Amino acid sequence: MTGKTAIVSDIHGNQAALAAVLEDIDTVGVDRIVCLGDIVGYGPHPRECLDRAMEFEFCVLGNHDSSALFDPGGFNRSAEKAIFWTRQRLENGESPEAARRRMDYLCKMPRMVQEDDVMFVHGSPRGPTNEYVFPEDTQNSKKMTKLFSLVKRLCFQGHTHVPGVFTNDLRFIRPDDIPDGFDPREASSIGGAELHCMINVGSVGQPRDGDARSCYVILDDGRIHFRRVQYDIEETVRAVEAEAELDNMLGYRLREGR
């Protein structure tokens, strides 16, 4: 894969965060933008975020996107209320045509995209929409071996909102440890073999790694760069507070990146 790709994920209806990230992407200059799912859910602007995401080259299906179409499973009370509110917002757009266009797009989102030896999913190679892969899973060799058996070379994913690089020799490399970027072709595993990697790109609209800034990835001719972007969190907090069906906590936790 050549050229420069911006990879975003987990926008979660946070329009202020998405606008700031897209502005940052404009300064970098990319050939395309792709999204790893969860465009909606939690946040106060599902329609606006979905409209912007529909302009990307592709978006894969996230669990909150799926739950906007079907009944949610495994959600806590706040998340469940938010997804039912989100569904209502999407189904009752400015016009029947706009609502149909948005829902049709959600219905057609793929669960996985494979481009040569690069995979794009929301959750994991084994469970593209729902499976979580956390940093501590590097201690679970059975799980990681199975996941990496499905990765030809690289897999980009989101879902946990915790950015970093998983390697097939059971390491997790945090963005702060690779400030100049990371190229798996220039690195080798502990045993000297070619590295296969799963890259969690973090979250645009709901970071959970203790850093409140939005996070996304630039893939530039094989080299991976994590980027953090400041946005107006209080704008989103106020928008959450203005919606009675959204738990205020969904806005307040943005301040802590949790």
Notes on the protein architecture:
- By secondary structure, the protein is of the alpha/beta class.
- The chain has eight helices and eleven strands.
- It has helices spanning 15-28, 46-53, 63-67, 77-91, 96-108, 141-148, 233-241, 249-252; strands at 4-8, 32-35, 58-59, 112-115, 118-121, 154-157, 164-167, 171-173, 197-200, 214-220, 223-229.
- The protein has a six-stranded mixed β-sheet, with no helix packed on it.
- The two termini are 34 Å apart.
Task: Draw up the topology in text.
Elements: E1 4-8, H1 15-28, E2 32-35, H2 46-53, E3 58-59, H3 63-67, H4 77-91, H5 96-108, E4 112-115, E5 118-121, H6 141-148, E6 154-157, E7 164-167, E8 171-173, E9 197-200, E10 214-220, E11 223-229, H7 233-241, H8 249-252
Parallel strand pairs: 1-2, 2-3, 5-6, 6-9
Antiparallel strand pairs: 1-10, 4-5, 7-8, 7-9, 10-11
